Amino acid sequence: MNGALLIIGDELLLGTTIDTNSAWLGRRLAEVGIEVKYKLTVGDSPKIIEDELRRLLEKFDIIITTGGLGPTLDDVTKKSIAKVLGKKLVLNERILKAIKKHFQKRGVEMPAINMSQALIPQGAHSIKNPVGTAPGLFLKEGEKWIFILPGVPSEMKAIFEEGVLPVLSREGKKEIRFRTIKTTGITESRLAEILDRTVKEVSGYVIVSFLPRHTGVNIRIKIKKGTEGGDELLKKVEEKFTEKIGIYTYGRDEETMEEVVGYLLTMRNFTLSVAESCTGGLIKHRITNVSGSSKYFIGGVVAYSNEVKQNLLGVPEQTLQRYGAVSQQTAISMAKGIRSLLKTDIGLSVTGIAGPSGGSVEKPVGLVYIGLLSKGKTSFEEHRFLGDRIKIKEQTAQAALDMLRRYLLNA
Amino acid sequence: MNGALLIIGDELLLGTTIDTNSAWLGRRLAEVGIEVKYKLTVGDSPKIIEDELRRLLEKFDIIITTGGLGPTLDDVTKKSIAKVLGKKLVLNERILKAIKKHFQKRGVEMPAINMSQALIPQGAHSIKNPVGTAPGLFLKEGEKWIFILPGVPSEMKAIFEEGVLPVLSREGKKEIRFRTIKTTGITESRLAEILDRTVKEVSGYVIVSFLPRHTGVNIRIKIKKGTEGGDELLKKVEEKFTEKIGIYTYGRDEETMEEVVGYLLTMRNFTLSVAESCTGGLIKHRITNVSGSSKYFIGGVVAYSNEVKQNLLGVPEQTLQRYGAVSQQTAISMAKGIRSLLKTDIGLSVTGIAGPSGGSVEKPVGLVYIGLLSKGKTSFEEHRFLGDRIKIKEQTAQAALDMLRRYLLNA
Hints:
Two copies of one chain form a homodimer. By secondary structure, chain A is an alpha/beta fold. Chain A has three domains: 2-171, Molybdenum Cofactor Biosythetic Enzyme, Chain A (3-Layer(aba) Sandwich); 177-252, Alpha-Beta Plaits (2-Layer Sandwich), CATH 3.30.70.2860; 257-410, Alpha-Beta Complex (Maf protein), CATH 3.90.950. Helix content of chain A is 41%, strand content 25%. The first copy, chain A, has helices spanning 10-14, 21-31, 46-59, 77-84, 93-105, 153-171, 188-201, 230-245, 257-268, 282-287, 306-311, 317-323, 328-342, 389-410; strands at residues 2-8, 35-42, 62-66, 89-91, 119-121, 125-127, 136-141, 144-149, 177-183, 206-213, 216-223, 249-252, 272-276, 297-303, 346-352, 367-374, 377-384. Chain A is globular, with a radius of gyration of 26 Å. The two termini of chain A are 47 Å apart. Chains A and B meet through helix 1, helix 2, strand 2, helix 7 and strand 10 of A and helix 1, helix 2, strand 2, helix 7 and strand 10 of B. Strand 14 (297-303) of chain A pairs antiparallel with strand 14 of chain B, so a sheet runs across the interface.
């Protein structure tokens, strides 16, 4: 079965909101064998929504819309869909009750404006919204299925998981098999060279894509439709690739670097503390995005000023004066300081120049040092990153976590 | 002039990559008066790209494509566009030279695979890529303009700013006037009620949209095309709205909460330190995303374990035992501790339960306390947030920065 997404909202065209819903839907649909072939974003204009919906209904089996179900005046989705299908909007008492209850739970009266959320196209089934007021809707038009979801990501996801997925799982077939191999510390061109022969070898039944970004290159492997061999084959192809890529592979599919690091710390039974300067807390934020990280992550310090580096982390004044705050010596001293301050097995540190100001000829914006201290081992890395302030922070955090990962693999 | 975006890449349909390019393009284009009316995402399939491009050429003045210009085998954009326009792909020596130079600067030979990046449709103008190898391309077909850009965001943006925008600015007219009012701490329904009369009052010439997300509701005000009054009118309408919304407004357009807080700290000449538990570093990460934040932000501690709260921040063992780590008393004690440890004017702290585990009936997941200490003033807030671990972290960071903002407004 193939599907199309119709994403509705002026704010997405104007760019004041970034659409994360459609990527999430693409992933979840692929997992149950429904391939999104087409994704269209249009504004809150009834005319355009109607025209495009007619076109999509001719071409695709499943159409999922997001957006335009809120209580405010600019929300036009339901009206447009009803019109295309030649149906009326009718008041659904059950939905109205649910919306009233939603407000009662919060101790407030339902604003009159929310009444419109209980209007649905005749014949539509409502899908419960466990976290908000606008329900999802499901319409069957002959062989075509239309799902109508709200645009607020948490509501869209909850309705999809609880109401849409169960239906689709029963109908969809596991046709798409793909895997993402995640790498960091190596360029796209270099990867393409290393993998050149392997890509050619499997090109009869595998489509390979390189997805570069500033924190690393993802490689997507997709087994062509109709290929025999199932998940076994995917596994074999993946192994072929990761063997060539070696240490630069850090994970697969949805796995994040911080999850991998967390897993390795748990396996080794090590505790960690982190001292950050230029990343300003991003490394610790990423580490603590992992549920259960409190088992191995004790805490850390953000030492933005030199005084904090000296007074809290014990970096000697002499080190700062002789080598500067951005130096291998300061990085190592910060790692040592945080490790002994918080009494952890490993101390990790970064210091660098995130820019846009603060750079010089010898120490340009993007120069970063990472320090790592553990029992009997002291190491550091120097990096020179390109990009704006936030990109440099992100590359630095990724490199620091990757250094920790490589250390843990051999520990 | 109206425009359409054609976003190319399997990874965007499969959802392994989130498309941030098109939102960015939408914003930049709107600023020079070009309204994106249509945004289409398709896979790396020549047939679909060709069909859709033909359709878009009939309907829109300006078409911008992103993606599919890399050196690897799955990149098909140029071939498809050339086919639709009835042109050949030809080798451009100047581009080839530039690509070779790009690699030389990095001290490596150009991989043979990158040769294909120098092939362009006959008659296309190349647009310099200041940060990568694939150049942008510009084609004029009668009255229609086609811009072909790479998918890597940093390259796309650099080419757009330096090569596309100058052309468009000359041609485009400032037709769209819009503003985003950013609010936090108030629900969409409540805002809609407060603003009900104002929205109706201006409905003849202004379109208002509510864009809710978990960290706040943005309100977009758009002056209808052809309305007289220009920027003056937009300003007057904005004032009407912010007057009603009051303290819940924290910024406008691209302004972030951390920028506003940074601005206020600079105005008041205050220094800040931050002690975080459940947010794990996110507050400090956001504060340090602002260039120049080292002037007011000294540093802070992430106290994930109780030992760090006690030993480093000086939270009394008794406080932790009697009230628990997640309590107003601990929050205040943490703020006091970080303020005196780093000798800053203001100490800000958060402690809470990000989940999914660790909650209880009395202290459920999402319960958060924020503490703020300054000379002569101690305050705290209690919040109960909904959502997953990361959403709770994000809401907590937003609320803490907002509490700081409101404090600074009155300080």
